[in-house]
Structures are given as structure tokens and as C-alpha cells.
Amino acid sequence: MAEPARPPLDAETLEALARVAGLALSAEEQAALLPPAAAIHAALGRLEALGLADTEPPYIFRLAAE
Amino acid sequence: MDAREIAFLPVATLAEHLRRRDLSPVEVTRVFLDRIAAYDRDLASYITVTADSALAEAAAAEREIAAGQYRGPLHGVPVSIKDLFYTAGVRTTAGSRILGDFVPTEDATVVARLRGAGAISLGKTNLEEFAFGATSVNPHYGACRNPWDRERIAGGSSGGSAAALAAGLCSVTLGTDSGGSIRQPAALCGVVGLKPTYGRVSRHGVVPLSWSQDHVGPLARTVRDAALVLAAIAGADPRDPASSAAPVPDYLATLEAGAAGLRLALPRDFFFDRIDPQVEAAVRQAAQTLVGLGATLEEIPLPQAAHTVTAGAAILFAEAAAYHEPWLRTRPQDYGPLILGRLRVGTTILATDLLQAQRARGVLVAQTAALFDRFDALLTPAVPIGAPRQDETTIQWPDGVVEDIRGTTLRYTRPFNLLGFPAISVPCGFTADGLPIGLQVVGRPFAEATVLRVARAYEAAADWGARRPVLGGGA
Questions:
Q1: What number is the ipTM of this complex?
Q2: Both ends of chain A: CA-CA distance in Å?
Q3: How far apart are CA A48 and CA B339, in angstroms?
Q4: Which alpha helices (DSSP H) does B331-388 contain, by range?
Q5: Closest chain B C-alpha to A33 CA, distance in angstroms
Q6: How far apart are CA B230 and CA B160, in angstroms?
Q7: How many CB atoms sit inside 10 A of residue B436's CB?
Q8: Does any CB of chain B come closer than 8 Å to the CB of residue A58?
Q9: Nearest C-alpha of chain A: how many angstroms from B358?
Q10: What's the pTM value of the predicted model, to 2 decimals?
Q11: pLDDT digits (tens, 9 = 90+) for B61-110
Q12: Which of B119, B124, B166, B167 suits a disulfide with B189, CB 3.0-4.6 Å?
């Protein structure tokens, strides 16, 4: 069975994300933000096609030997 | 030699005149300062011109050279510096109102290295606000114009650097590249732009846009000039946590080795989708020129390229939003509207998505690196179109797709910021409207010498560098 598709980013979710980020946006600003934010969210949902199951992210964190 | 001729000399040639003392650093610096005064009101390529300190540095260089203390090919050469690099005692605005009064107390590592090589700083060049964009139509310091057609953009974010160089307002210049910001303006302004491997050149003292995708490199009149500057600025820096300890090779040693025997690849997909046919024809002709010089060429699939743009964008937007987060909440009114919107998009990237993008990065680096088992370099267009008009915000393609200018003009350069591989843009022709076209050459990590070699072989065979923009008054 195919995996359920990621839902598109909607205005309500975007408003919640912006609020969590501490942004005070007008209705017009939120409306302007939705298309580019939704586009990048949709594209990110397609990265899974690369087959990431066995992949760790590259780490910034590393320790030097004493 | 007249002033215009001096202004357009490659560094390698100018350096010989300075070393032999048939030109003096003060004389050459005055040429550039006079040209900036004459032409930059229109071009807006500089934010800050440091005329007095430039002349003082030139006088000091002149004394040193006269005393036999010649430091090398950048000694006495006037350079410009993107206003994203810290310069001790000289304000560093990052093209922003927020840092409009910021005066660093130290030089960025690369600025210090250029000064150590004897270069003279003419000033700080215009850019996209905080380097987050592709046009250099700066809302605070003026719209930088393309010297080839002043109704068009110079590109960005290092647009001021590219425009100043193309207009003969500096000999060579420093830029930064987080999605194409050296290569794209270089292509649109008809100069050479080199983004070295991530970690090859220090980022210390550079206002960040995307910590893991920011690269520092030269924009230059010729490939040799780019190699000369890279040699001066490359190498380990303990103050940059991403800096590599890999030894710096002699970039000039193989520069003239030609293209014979090199294995080149031309990606079939992604890099020729939605492209001006004139640009495609010029790039394919450039590839054939290299074949004529003895290289082999194979067209290959590169299906992962589109994913590099997605992952790169997510990482860049999130890293930029993280850096700007305090100002986003306290000083949103001080940002221009375009960058403010982009930074706000960055705040909506989920932590899980950022990690998925990082995981994808690992896969994409491995997939692309494997190509270099079979090839020495990839060839692509640098930018799919000639420089857009200042008032254009979108492009409509024949298939009906509408793409914004930033997305269009950075589409072919962004993959190599995510991957970190070295890439150069070298002029490869002009559109029917007289707008420059760039060929992008990409190499395996730390193979700058190969990238430079391919670009130089093409440059020597094609010789597009003889054309210069007309600024008015015969300049």
C-alpha cells in the first residue's frame, strides 16, 4: 500500500508555525508567506524518494582528541 | 598606456607592470578611483569607497616595491571587497540597514590575506541585503546595474563585485556564494567567478547567510587571475570550524595544461530544462570547443540534481532564519520586504525537515562524487538566461511554468553549494541582445586545479574577454 501523501501546508498550520516562531504577522503578510512556504514544504516531502532509510545526517558536532 | 587600458588589464599583466615599476600603485589606484567617481553614481556597484586609505596603501606599496620588497602578483593591485566581509575600521553593512553602522575591529581572514599579499582595497561593493537574493537591487543602498545593459540586473548576491569588475572599477574582487552568488553575477556580467570547495577558503569574518553553504571566492577578469587570488586566500584557518587542513596545491602549475585527455560530462537532465536556446547553444558550443582541444565528452543523466535544490533551499532558509531570528522578532521593519519574506519562510521549516534535508545531502554528495570516478569535470550552463531587466520579477517559460527570477537564475548553481564541490563560471558567449553567457565547470572536492585548467583551456580557445561594456564617454 502506498504511503499517505504529506498534506499541503495550509493557512491555519502556517499561522501556528509563525506564532510558535514568535512572528507577529498581519493577515496580508501571512497570505504572502503561504505560497513560498507551501512550495518548499511540498518539495521536502519528495526527498523521501532518495531512499533515506539507512542514512544519518552529516554532523556538525565532533570532538577533538585531547 | 591610457587609463582605460590600465583599468581592464588582467591582474597577471598589471602585476608585471607594477613589478617592473613602469606603472606605480598610486597611479593605478588613481585610475580606478577616478573611474569610480565618473561611473559608479549610475552603476551603484560600491556602497563605500575608501579613497584616502586606498591611496595611502598604494603609496606604501610603491615604497616597498621601490625598495625591492616585492611581495608577489597582488602587490599594489587595487581590489574591491563585497560588503559582507569584515574590514577593520571600515563599516560592513551586509547591504542592510540593520548593520548600517557596524564597523568591525578586525579584518575577515581572507581580507587580511589579501592585504598581506599587498593588495589595495578600493572599498566595499554593493550586494543583495544580507546576501539573501539574486539581483543586488538593494532597497537601502541602491539598485546595482549591469554594465552591459544598465536596465538589467548585475545578479547577486555579489552583484556589486561583478558589476565593478566588468566596468573596470577594480582589478579583481572578492565575493561569497551560498547558492550561486559568485557564479551567477559573474555569468551575467561577463567575468570569471570561482566558488572553491567548501572548507578550502576561510569564512571567518564573513556575515553568514547559510553556515553550511557559504563559500568565499574571487571574481576576476581571467581564469589566471582567479587562480592567483585563490592561491592568496586558500588554506587552513583555525578560526573557521569548517576550514580544511588539506594542503593548497600550486594552482598555476597545471593552468596551461590544456584539455587534451580530460574526461568531461554534460548532464542531460535538469541543466537544460527551461533554458534560453541561445544559452543552451553557447554552452553546447563551448563543450564542443573543449572536445576540439582533445577532451572527451559524454552526456549523462543526473536525476538527483532537482533534489539538491530542494535540500539546499531548506537548509539555507533554516540556517538564515536561525541567524536572523533575534532581529526578525525585534526589528522586522528594518529589513527590505523581499528578504523579510524569505526569512519568515525559513522560520516555518520543521526540524524534522531540516534533518531530512541533511540526510538527503549525504546521499546526494555520495551519488555525485561517484561520477568523478569516470569524469574529471562536469559542464553545465551557469545561468539559464541572460541578465533579466531590473523590473522583471518572474519568467514565464514556453511550457507555461512561471518561475521567479531568483529561482531561475540560481537554478544551475545551487546544487553545488549543497554538495560543496568546486565550480567556476567562465564567459562563453553573448545573447543576441549583447548579454553575457557563462559556462559552469564543476570538479570533485578540492580539485580546483582541474576546474581552473578546464576553464582556462576554454578561455584561451574562445577569447571572449576582449569585449568590454560601453559605459558612455568612451570608457
A1: 0.91
A2: 51
A3: 29
A4: 337-347, 351-371
A5: 7
A6: 20
A7: 30
A8: yes
A9: 5
A10: 0.97
A11: 999 999 999 999 999 999 999 999 999 999 999 999 999 999 999 999 99
A12: B166
